[in-house]
Write a structure and sequence with these properties.
Strand content of chain B: over 45%
Distance between the termini of chain B: 31 Å
Largest sheet of chain A: 6 strands, mixed
Largest sheet of chain B: 7 strands, mixed
Number of helices of chain A: 0
Radius of gyration of chain B: 13 Å
Distance between the termini of chain A: 39 Å
Helix content of chain B: under 10%
Mean pLDDT of chain A: 92
Number of strands of chain B: 11
Oligomer: heterodimer
Largest interface: A-B, 22 and 26 residues
Shape of chain B: globular
Number of helices of chain B: 0
Radius of gyration of chain A: 13 Å
Low-confidence stretches of chain B: none
Helix content of chain A: under 10%
Low-confidence stretches of chain A: none
Mean pLDDT of chain B: 91
Chain lengths: 112, 114
Amino acid sequence: QQQVKQSPQSLIVQKGGISIINCAYENTAFDYFPWYQQFPGKGPALLIAIRPDVSEKKEGRFTISFNKSAKQFSLHIMDSQPGDSATYFCAASLNYGQNFVFGPGTRLSVLP
Amino acid sequence: DSGVTQTPKHLITATGQRVTLRCSPRSGDLSVYWYQQSLDQGLQFLIQYYNGEERAKGNILERFSAQQFPDLHSELNLSSLELGDSALYFCASSSRAPMLGELFFGEGSRLTVL
């Protein structure tokens, strides 16, 4: 029940295209859903996050869509750029920021 | 720069040996988390400390131990090392405010066991 599933494992998108990464969870007690971005040789960094009382959150080209009834959430990257090439991790946490559980990650490659 | 400092950045050692990884959290952050990232694997939660006390435990092996000191820095001790322990070990810190829940990761310590 603590698991977060993530797909696809890898994704190749042309520059200017839309990248979509999906995550699913089982534990309805999760109350905070962040996405982390990791570049090679670096630690993950928070990209965008959402709480379950909101269905969508947008920050620039990055949007989280959240479906509470389906227990799914997704990251959309609009107008994908080569600089977006990185590994993306979805996560979920209990107690609003403690006990993080990470998905296995999606390696995104944006072709120029 | 996340403000979280990890040392050493790289470490090569032999099987059976013991190593210590060090983490200095962001100024003011009371929580420290340790994660293991193996090749092409996700982030496996090992252990969390909050203000010196163990708060949560994940898939941490008995050969591994950690502690958080009064100055809030933390150390992860890995002993009787095996080839499979080769991985990136990340430390992260967080504070309850103002950005509730955000984890700030260091750049990791890459451990290679030969």
